[in-house]
Design brief:
three-stranded antiparallel sheet, two-stranded antiparallel sheet, mainly alpha, binds protoporphyrin IX containing FE, 16 helices, Cytochrome p450, globular
Amino acid sequence: MARTAMFEEHAADLEPNLSILNIDPPDHTRLRRLVSQAFTPRTVETLRPMVQSLVDDALDVMESAGQADLIGGLAFPLPFDVISEMLGMPENDKLQIRDWSAAIVKTIDPVITEDEVIAAADASREMDRLIDAVIEWKRANPADDLLTALIEAEEDGDRMTARELRDQVSVLFIAGHETTVNLIGTGIYQLLLHPEQLSRLVADPSMITNAVEELLRYVAPVQITRRIATRDLEIGGKEVAKGSFVLCSLASANRDPVFWGDDAEALDLARQDASHHVSFGSGVHYCLGASLAKLEAEVAIGSFVRRFADAEIVGDPEWNGRINLRGLEKLELRLS
Ligand code: HEM
């Protein structure tokens, strides 16, 4: 089937996604305000004991096995469990959401097969249905969690519609775990590939905050953002016509020698201006979960390094095959 016909059959009836990632002000401003309360640095800091306890449990299991997959054992479940906990999701629906989410995020790759478009469209419909059901369940079982707070905003009248609510929950789930997995997974992998940097961090654990910034710069867990020009403009001497679809390479900006200097390609956990990376984007769409992602990575990477500084990579790592959310699918480690 021709690509256009295939797309029309499987994806054309999908409703436009109203998550804050995809919309402009003034709707973006209104909705971002409603979801942002839970993500301020101060509120996020209160999650530290919960994050530490999830990390400790995961590392205990890995240690007792002696050899373990870092991604399946820690990097993936941690961000997923944290956002599930914040939202107050029912336990049973989590595994299914993982699979659908993986299919949906393929659509932000610049190259995608027909089968992947079909799988993403189907997953998107299923995910919408499940989130609608979870919202109904939560209406009957309110609690002290983010989903209940968002439902209250929706029930309050014209602050948020039911569809807007569903799309915010969905983006929080997807953005909440498909990105941080790469920071923790590829970040630890890079430390193991750079033993001199790993030793610095082991010798001085207070470096962890800057180390996470440098790993964010170096790894770029989201490699590309996308924009559609709303007017004609010029960027860096290039004309961009209104309506153009523009891909911006965050990963490339993070290693631009004009900004970072001759050692742009080097991993340096003590780099002075490491936090000037653009891994969380910039402007009104700057990552809502930046503080949360950094907290999760600090606790996960800091704790891993404290316990397993001698970890050895077993065999070749498996990459996830994604262009944008580039990261590891599997990293087998010997831990004792
Ligand atoms: C290392 C981890 C993460 C990275 C690298 C990352 C990266 C990004 C980037 C680059 C954007 C901007 C996209 C654009 O401008 O088009 C963004 C937006 C966003 N991120 Fe993250 N993110 C991470 C973790 C998280 C987490 C943990 C959450 C929430 C639980 C989250 C929620 C969001 C949301 C809701 C937006 C849309 C914000 C808006 O459009 O106003 N992210 N993220």
